[in-house]
Amino acid sequence: MGCNRLEGKVAIITGGARGIGEATVRHFLSHGAKVVIADVRDNLREALCHELGEGTSYIHCDVTNMDDVHKTVSFTVEKFGKLDIMAIFGGFSTYAYACSKTAIVGLMKNAAVEFGIRVNCVSPYGVVMHLTDGLVPVEVMNLNLNFEDLMSKVGNLQGVVLKAEDIAQAALYLASDDAKYVSGQNLFVDGGVTIVNPSLVMDYSSLLGQA
């Protein structure tokens, strides 16, 4: 695998101003891509673009607004002459997150078939970022466990903590020519949780019972 796996590529990364999206922006840039950050966190624009340099641009984009999406694509093509990659990250409430992830996998598979292009998903285990604030039950918080500690305790793979950079690495693989014949796939980055299929509710109860 080369050092610049995205050399000459142009990418749009939605939700790229923070969290997993930001980690992916940094990872793509380090591998030679030009990146347009599409986000609604306009207050982060100046600092991000200054830090990341000329290979990066920012545009306000609410992915629920199709006009914003069309403008983002047009902006990218006008600035860089083409568009090779779209990496879509976004935030949802806990309930909406679960529903949306199920729907996204179906949409991904349909798009891969309908358009004849590479379309894939990454499904991660719990990773610490701003969206995880408030997701740990009060009872667990009283045990002085933060979100990362909790995910480590109820996870299947022991001794390893999932980071945003790990998700970015998976996205890099799928976006690069290393995955040139990979399409319609949902790549689990979950330490084997989907193999054992744990119930977090049961694990919470077990964890509290052992405390």
The tally of structural domains comes to 1
Shape: globular
Number of helices: 9
What would you call the structural class? alpha/beta
Q: Given this structure, which CATH class is correct?
A: Alpha Beta
Low-confidence stretches: 200-205, 207-211
Question: What is the terminal-to-terminal distance?
Answer: 45 Å
| CATH level-four homologous superfamily name | NAD(P)-binding Rossmann-like Domain
Q: Kindly state the number of beta strands.
A: 6
Mean pLDDT over the residues? 83
Overall CATH architecture? 3-Layer(aba) Sandwich
Your description of this structure?
One of its GO terms (molecular function) is oxidoreductase activity. InterPro entries: NAD(P)-bd_dom_sf, Sc_DH/Rdtase_CS, SDR_fam. Keywords: Oxidoreductase. By secondary structure, the protein is of the alpha/beta class. It has one domain: Rossmann fold, CATH 3.40.50. It has helices at 19-30, 45-52, 66-80, 94-115, 138-141, 147-154, 164-175, 193-196, 200-210, and strands at 10-14, 34-39, 56-60, 85-88, 121-124, 186-189. The strands form two sheets. The protein has a four-stranded parallel β-sheet with strand order 3-2-1-4, sandwiched between helices. Strands 5-6 form a two-stranded parallel sheet. Helix 1 links the parallel strand 1 and strand 2. Mean pLDDT is 83; it is low at 200-205 and 207-211.
